[in-house]
Each structure stands twice: as structure tokens, then as C-alpha cells.
Amino acid sequence: MPHVLSSSPVCPLPLLSFENVEVVYGQARERRKALDRVSFAIEAGETLALVGESGSGKSTLAKAAIGLVPISSGTIRLDGVDLAQRHRSVRALRSRMQMVFQDSGSALNPLQTIQRILETPLKIRGVPRPERLARIAEALEQVNLPTSILTRYPHALSGGQKQRVGIARVLLLKPEILVLDEPVSSLDISMQAQVLNLLADLQDRHRFAYLFISHDMRSVNFLSDRVAVLYLGRIVELADRAALQANPLHPYTRLLFESIPGQGRRHIELPSTEASGTETANTGCRFHKRCPLVTSLCREIEPNLHVTGHDHFVACHHAQTEQVASARVSRRAVNDLRAI
Amino acid sequence: MSRLIADIRGLSVHFGEHLIVDGIDFSIQENEILALVGESGCGKSTVALSLLRLLPDKGCTVAGKVLLGGRDILTVPENELNDLRGSAVSIIFQDPSTALNPVWSIGSQIVETLRRHRNISAKAARRQAIDLLDLVAIPDPHRRIDDFPHQFSGGMRQRVMIAMAISCNPRLLVADEPTTALDVTTQAQVLELLDKLRRDLSMSILLITHDLSLVADWADRVVVMYGGQICESAPTRSLFSAPFHPYTQCLLASIPPLSGGPTHRTGRLFEGPSAGVVTASAAGCRYAARCDRAEASCLSAKPAIFSVGAGSHLAACPVVKPSVSLAATVI
Questions:
Q1: Number of C-alpha atoms within 13 angstroms, CB side, residue A49?
Q2: What is the largest CA-CA distance in chain B?
Q3: Nearest to A190 among B156, B254, B265 (CB)
Q4: What residue ranges in chain A does DSSP mark as E strands?
Q5: What is residue A123's predicted lDDT score, i.e. its pLDDT?
Q6: Band of the pLDDT at A266, cuts 50, 70, 90?
Q7: Which of B19, B34, B78 has its CA nearest to residue B53?
């Protein structure tokens, strides 16, 4: 991989880096690569958005980052330290990376009060009681929740409040990287805005790095600096957000953009086949069965992620030919969107 | 004016003490896609279930009329009910994986529906099931008909649900958040399919959703609900270009732009007035507790719905003047 890191001036000293990370689920004939040679880096204060369909490996990547699934090969480094080492110092290092879960309803224990839920991570770290209470009060203030909710149970809170409790729980441990797994997708649109604004404010204040997993391009537009597009376990495109929006190079990225509703009623011709998680093409590019630009080269040789422009990486044999011309069309389509 | 397919008059639903749907009126024309939008808890799914009389008898009181082809589904005798369901109206649900029986093959579930409603042999029903799968663009339907739900992807399961729902040529298809559980690429395909079927089979669709960008693309008309009441109803174009009700304006302004607009480095997204404690006063406008333009009169009387523009643009807000609402349009 190393070219992704070495040629990327944005990340002189990455806070978190993935180097050729692979995750394999299942055994023997059922083996399936959920992540395949994934490489990227995030620096402090930056948001990298991960987009892709279900089955693309977004959540696996998040779990691999915080150590909930073991990686089969490759290296994940936090501040330069390999997280695979089993050492006490590595465990302490891990607390600098925390995860906010998708469904705030099921991420909070329904039988515990909010106070108990928030105290647990501090107890585990051995924080004495007076300090625990002070830190909880501070975290609640940061997410704009009153301390009166401490005595309540999760079911008594709204979806937006529950998600803010989830964020407060993560803030208690003073992390530097937050892994946000679809943090707003289960919320109503007005609540989404509140939570996204809160995340932006927290990032401003604490210089958090965000690994922001989402399938909603509208929240990605707001919260991200760079975007990585994942397809069946591989990064197929990685670029600055604005560059990706203006000039999506991979046919899959363009398909994703074109599928977003609210761009005017259009009868676009979409490939009829759907991605199916279990059915990876055996050889060649994994997108070739759905790709409108497929050639015999694509069926035989898998394209590597390569640089095409300033910080713009793409894994497609044809990304530099007809793609660029037609990319203008989608730029116009994106502008049309402002009409609604 | 085209024919009325469904006419909902004064529909109210109580769950125990709670008033979930508060006397709403709307109608669905032949061959149109009518969108019913609102946030979670506004009563839109309850409306969907009432249209098929699927709400439980116990603990649930339904009042008003749901006229389908002239007959009130809320009062027809039990034996006629199942004939109305299927041919006059049918429904697809949000999550296709829980709506299909996991231990029955796809084919047997479609055949069961067909044979319940039509007097046909098992063999003919199977042939028809294959045709239906073909119609909803399942590749290789001869082979896939004996597969089980877990062998299908989410989008294909929703296609199977659609095949079952249209098997008896309903005049009205109620689609309750049909694509919420699906990926954005699959979502586009499923909506494309629904729209094609609507044209080919000339049915009407009631699209229930919280996603206004879907509405902008696919609906002919929109009904906006808040707290069990209708606050605005308009042709799609008119609603998006000149939203009248403060709640509709807030909903439209909360759609983040797909490009441009504020980013986390440059600004903040529009949040709208925060949800106040919704007062239990059933008398007034339900949105008053959150509305930044509410007046004392809003709390005391339920606002009447009245015409605010051309082309049957209706709204229920006596406070906002049309000129004000146009000036306040945020996007």
C-alpha cells in the first residue's frame, strides 16, 4: 500500500492508520474477506467519511479499528503504535479511540439509569467517585443535556437524547478519535441536524479525529473532510470531499451519487443487479458485474488504488479516460440539487 | 378531475386514552402517488394500517370513514374484508425481512396469496407467481421461486413483497416506508419499479415516508402530518416551492444540501425550533408547542384547513399569511 500514505501530504503524522488491513470471516470454504487490503490514515482534527452499501465492510472496519473484531493481516497503528501488541500500554492507548453506535436505543442498557450507564466506563478506569460525578456533569454539559436526566432510564428519553447520552459516554474517557457508526441514521431529520451540529462543535473544541461511517451523502457533505468509498471490502476511491463531489472517478462512486433522491425526478438507467455480499467476482475488478464501463481487462485484472490527482485515489482501469468527461454531468446534477 | 380511489373522511384513532390520529381528511386520485410525510410518532403508519383495517380491535378505537371504491372498509363485514384487502388495497411494509415468513419458500408465500383471493389451481398459481417475480425484475424466476427469504438480498425481498402486494391487481398500494431498510442504490431501483408498476397496472400509491427528498422525486401530491393532524397538503411542486405551514417550512429547511451549504468547518445545519414539551391540549394546533410563530389562539382551537394557493394547496395555519410564508422560504 504504502503509496497511499507516502504520497499523501495531508497526513504527515497520522493519528490512526490502516495498512493493508484484512478481516476474514468464516472458515475453510465459507471464508469470506470482509475487508481486503484496506489502507488509509487520519490525522488529528480531521473527519474521514466511509461510505458504501450494506455489506461493503463499513461496520467491520469500525469494529476492527476499536478491536471488536480481530484482523487477519495488516497493521492498525494509533499514534505510530501497532495495536495488535498485547501490552498494558496498548490497552491504555486504546481508550483514546471510542465508538458511538448506530442505534442509540440498543446501545444503552434499558435496566440501568443514565447515571449508572455513564459511571461504568469511569469505574473500569478506576476513577474515584467525586471525580466521576464531576466528569459526568461536564460531559452532559458538552452534549447539552440537563443533569436531571441522570436518574432516568433510556426508555424515557427521545432518540436524539439517547444518542447524546451515547456521545457523552464516549467523551468521559477523553478520547482523541471517535468512530461514529451511522450516528444519525436512526433519527428524525430535525434531530439529525442537532446531533451533527453537536459533533461539529465537539470536533472544533477538542480537535477530535472522526471516522464517520454513513450511507447518507447529505450528512457526509456536512461533516467530512475526506471521503473513502468502500465496495465489497475494498476502498475503490478516496479523495477530498469537494474533489469527490465535483469529479467522482470510480463508476461505483458515480452510481452512489446518482442514486441519491432529491435531485429531480429522473429515470436514470441503473444497473439491474445488486451487490450481494457473498458473491464477489472471482477474478478482476469486484465491481465488473455491475459496471457500465466494463472491458475484458476488468474481468481479468483487479485494479489497484492509484493516485489520479491531488490526493485523489481511485481503483479503476478506466478512471482517467471517459470518466472525466462524463463527470461534468454529475457535477451539474449535484448543483441541481440546491433547487429543492 | 380523475376518479377517487380512496376517500378518507374524519379518520380518528385512539390507542387507549391517546389520540394518535386526530380527525384527518384526504383523498387519493386514480393513478397518482400521494406521499404522506412526517416525523416518527406523527401517526402516519397508523393511518396506513387503518386503510387496511389492520389495527387491533382491542385497545384501539377507530372513527371516521375510509371509502375504497365506495365501500367503507372500517364497517364492511368480516367476510367481505378480505376481498377488499388485496383487490382494493394492499400494503408493503418497511422491513421486508420480517414481513416474509423465513421457513416458507418465496413461491409458496406468493401462491398462498393468489389462491386465497382467486379461485385457481395450484399449478396456475405457481405459473402466475413466476410471472409476478418476473414482473418485479427478479432474475431467473423459475429457479428463484423455490428459494427461501434468507437467500435473497434486502432489495430482492422488497421486490417479493411488492409481487405479493400486486398479485390481485389492487387499485391502491400502501407503501409504508418501503425503502428505509434499503441501500440508496437499491432504494432508487425499488422506487423505479413501483413507479413503473403504477403506470403499467394503473394503480395509485400511498407512499409513507419521512424522507422529503424521496417525496420530491416521486410523489405527485404530498400530505404533511404533525402530531396526528394534517398541517399541509399540496401538489409536490407547489409544496416545495412555496411551503406554507411553519412545520413544513422547518422540515424543508432541515434537509441538508448534497453539496455546498454549510460544512462542519464553515457553519451549522438548520435545526429549527427545538421540541418543546408537547402539551396534551387536544384542543389546539399540535405544532404550537414548537412553533416560533404561535399565538394564544393556536392553543385554544384546532386550526381549520383552508386553501392557500392555486392547485388545491391547503394548509392549517391561521397565523401565517401567504406573503409571509413565501418570503420565509428558506431554500
A1: 26
A2: 66
A3: B254
A4: 16-25, 32-42, 47-51, 73-78, 81-82, 97-100, 177-181, 209-213, 226-231, 234-240, 306-309, 312-314
A5: 94
A6: low
A7: B78
Minimum distance, in Å, between the CA of residue A276 and any CA atom of chain B: 7
Could B211 and A256 be called an inter-chain contact, meaning their C-beta atoms sit closer than 8 Å? no
Run of H or E including A157: none
| Other beta carbons within 10 Å of B196 | 14
Query: Beta-carbon neighbour count of residue A273 at 10 Å?
Result: 12
Inter-chain residue contact A194 with B274, CB threshold 8 Å = yes
State how beta strands A209-213 and A226-231 pair. Answer: unpaired
Cβ–Cβ gap B39/A334 under 8 Å: no
pLDDT level of residue A222 (50, 70, 90 thresholds):
very high
CB contact at 8 A, A211 and A177: yes
Do residues A232 and A277 make contact, with C-beta atoms less than 8 angstroms apart?
Answer: yes
The residue of chain A with its CA nearest to that of B213 is A262
- Interface probe for A, chosen from B33, B185, B187, B218 (most Cβ of A below 10 Å), is B185
Residue B322 pLDDT: 53
pLDDT digits over B48-92, tens only? 999 999 999 888 999 999 999 889 999 999 888 988 898 899 999
Q: How far is B120 from chain A (nearest CA, A)?
A: 32
In DSSP terms, which residues pair with B319 in a beta bridge? none
Q: Considering only CA atoms, which of A98, A68, A69 is closest in space to residue A180?
A: A98
pLDDT at A335 over 60: no
Give the closest-approach CA distance of A225 to chain B in angstroms: 9
CA distances from B111 to B105, B118, B133, B143, B165 (A): 10, 10, 12, 15, 12
Mutate to test the interface with A, among B95, B134, B136, B184 (most CBs of A within 10 A): B184
Distances (CA, A) of A296 to A43, A272, A289, B174: 39, 20, 11, 44
Q: What is the predicted pLDDT for the residue at B97?
A: 82
Chain A residues in contact with B186 by the CB 8 A cut-off are 53, 274
Q: Is B186 on the interface with A (CB under 8 A)?
A: yes
Q: Say if the Cβ atoms of A270 and B192 lie within 8 Å.
A: yes
**Cβ–Cβ below 8 Å for B184 and A259:** yes
Lowest-confidence region among A84-88, A123-127, B193-197: A84-88
